[in-house]
Amino acid sequence: MKVMTGALRVFLRYAADQGLCDPRLANALRAPRVYTRESLPSAPAWVDVQRLLATTETDRPADIRDRAILMLLAIYGMRSGEVAALRLDQVDMPQGIGDRGDLL
Predict the structure, then answer these.
(1) Do residues 36 and 5 touch, judged by C-beta distance below 8 A?
(2) How big, in percent rounded to 5, are the helix, strand and coil portions of the chain?
């Protein structure tokens, strides 16, 4: 859209130089706002998430921890700051219930 707007503006300036339209017409066109990271995906595809989770399916303590963190992020939709601030005393392990009463 931004490229097309620029091309149309150039054409209208040329047309104004030839006397075919008002010179103010080219200046009236505004290019759309394009954000720097606009083309980045908002989230990874679910197959990519599953593949990442599969890499942590071992008995190593670090992998168990990493899998729990990844599941909190991907499945429960927690933000990284919330996961980082999470404490063990906020989770009722035998019942699988968080301190707010929701199931884990």
Answers:
(1) no
(2) 50, 5, 45
The CA distance from 12 to 26, in Å, is 5
The pair of three-digit structure tokens given for residue 13, joined into one six-digit string:
């300036």
Which residues are CB-neighbours of 31 under 8 A, at least 6 positions away? 2, 5, 6
Distance of alpha carbon 43 from alpha carbon 71, whole angstroms: 14
Consecutive H or E run containing 97:
strand 97-98
Which pTM does this prediction carry? 0.51
Give me 4's structure tokens: 């097309």
Residue-wise pLDDT for 71-98, tens only, equals 999 888 889 999 999 888 887 666 655 5
Question: If phi over 0 gives left and psi between -120 and 50 gives alpha, with beta otherwise, what is residue 78?
Answer: beta
Q: Cα separations (Å) of 40 from 1, 4, 35, 90?
A: 17, 21, 10, 34
